[in-house]
Amino acid sequence: MEVQLNTDTEINQFIDNVNKKSKIVISEIKEQFLEDELPWVIGFSGGKDSTAVLQLVFSVIAELPIDKRNKEFHVLSNDTLVENPNVVDYLDKQLEKIEKFGKNELYRHNPDAFQTTKEVPKLENTFWLNLIGKGYPSPNKWFRWCTQRMKIRPTY
After folding, report:
1. Rounded (to 5) percent helix, strand, coil in the chain
2. What whole-number distance in Å separates Cα of residue 97 and Cα of residue 40?
């Protein structure tokens, strides 16, 4: 989405609009978090979208009284085993920081309720075994066999 803002008025209107939408999202997160005792699982890839979601959720939890932070909370990441090693290192460091913050700050009263997990696919679902060993074609927009095997299945 490209936004062209040419005047101070347009910029201020844009900022006001973003702030209004952010308040709505934060209110919805808070309502959903407090609605029941079901555990929350947030998928985290380390990219901009999952980072923004996690930051929003953390900001909501941080504002809650300690006695309202009893829900189990899991940050889940999936390593496809084909990522660039620098990306894997970055993700591992981010997960360490997330776990430290979650256990020492957000859930300091009950650190066992906060977990970070990094899953990997089973051997039979790995990229290279399927591509070379089983002869699957490279994933493309019509045949995305890798998403189910390497991103979704490892989580259950």
Report:
1. 60, 10, 30
2. 19
Range of the domain at 153: 121-156
Q: 114-119 and 73-78 as β-strands: parallel, antiparallel, unpaired?
A: parallel
| Helices (H), ranges, the chain | 8-35, 48-63, 85-101, 127-128, 145-146
pLDDT tens, position by position, 116-153: 999 888 877 777 777 778 777 787 888 776 666 656 66
Domain count, the chain: 2
The answer on 64 and 34 residing in a single domain is yes
The residue with tokens 């496809």 is 80
Q: Name the nearest CA neighbour of 112 among 70, 54, 62.
A: 70
| 31 and 107 in a common domain | yes
> Whole-model pTM?
0.79
